[in-house]
Amino acid sequence: MTTDPAAGAAPVTSPAAGLVSSLRERRLTIATAESLTAGLISAAIADVPGASSVLRGGLAAYATEVKRECLSISAELIERHGVISPECAEAMAYQSRVLFGADLAISATGVAGPDQQEGQPVGTVFIAVATAADLQTSRLDLSGSRRAIRLGTVEAALSLAHSVVAVMGKAAGGHSSVPSGDG
């Protein structure tokens, strides 16, 4: 948390810091599966002090083969919907949550440019957040440079995850509150 000199002594919290704080408070863990952001979402989370208590891991699944082979996204799904689709974003988030044993996972797939892909214009992005009980997906239509599109994706993905975490119960995580089996 930092202070914004223009606003006096009011604290300013980054989207990543807010997310990490909410995850820690609820004893939840998170993972990522990223295509166009290639690890920026995971890096933003890891930049927050204390992130090691919530961040399980992430996969930069930039290439289609990595989505298929490492995240087990079916060739049929990719053939039917493409990698720039809400269906692919949802599958990436779901598979990342399972792969890393996390309570929730964020995914991002899209077109940062310079050229369109799969008939989708530059700036078309799909993000998803998966939990054991819910799957939230959002389409973004961003503009600007590759960097601006990628950074806009990170901010939107962190915000979506934070809104999902906000409705999850305290200690709802499957990893922090699992009975030890001793009793």
Strand order of the largest sheet: 4-3-5-6-7
pLDDT < 50 stretches = 1-10, 170-183
String of helices and strands: EEHEHEHHHEEEH
How helix-rich are the residues, as a percent range? 25-40%
Please give the radius of gyration in angstroms: 17 Å
Give the distance, in angstroms, between the N- and C-terminal Cα atoms.
40 Å
Strand content bin? 15-25%
Shape estimate:
globular
**What structural class do helix, strand and pairing data support?**
alpha/beta
Describe, in plain words, how this protein is organized in 3D.
This protein has 183 residues and is of the alpha/beta class. The chain has helices spanning 15-26, 40-46, 64-69, 75-81, 86-100, 146-167, and strands at 2-3, 11-12, 30-34, 55-60, 104-110, 124-131, 135-141. The strands form 2 sheets. It has a 5-stranded mixed β-sheet, with helices on both faces. The chain has a two-stranded antiparallel ribbon with strand order 1-2. α2 (40-46) links the parallel β3 and β4. It is globular, with a radius of gyration of 17 Å.
